[in-house]
Amino acid sequence: MQFKYLAAFALGASLAAATGIPASQCNTGPVQCCNSTGTTKDANISKLLGLLNINVSDVNALIGVTCTPITVIGAGGSSCTAQPVCCSNNSFNGVVAIGCVPVSL
Description:
With 105 residues, the protein is of the alpha+beta class. The protein has one domain (2-104). Helix content is 22%, strand content 33%. It contains two helices and five strands. A hairpin with a 6-residue loop joins strand 4 and strand 5 (96-104). It is globular. The relative contact order is 0.32.
């Protein structure tokens, strides 16, 4: 199971070098609107990952916390007042999204 997370992080880490991508280039699922983002070096994120038993100690990827998908971009009514991101691993029901890159809406 560790390999699955590392593969997701490898993609996220390679995307993280960018300062932001257009929403249309997010091909890993819907763009996510996260209440906050950070890395495993942030104490709150590290603590949350520990509570969820998600080991990402060797990876320095952007992680989104409390995320919801943005399904309609630019159609009035669907906006993100927090941090819009494109993440390579959204399999934690919105609690965390891993391997994220900022998105410009």
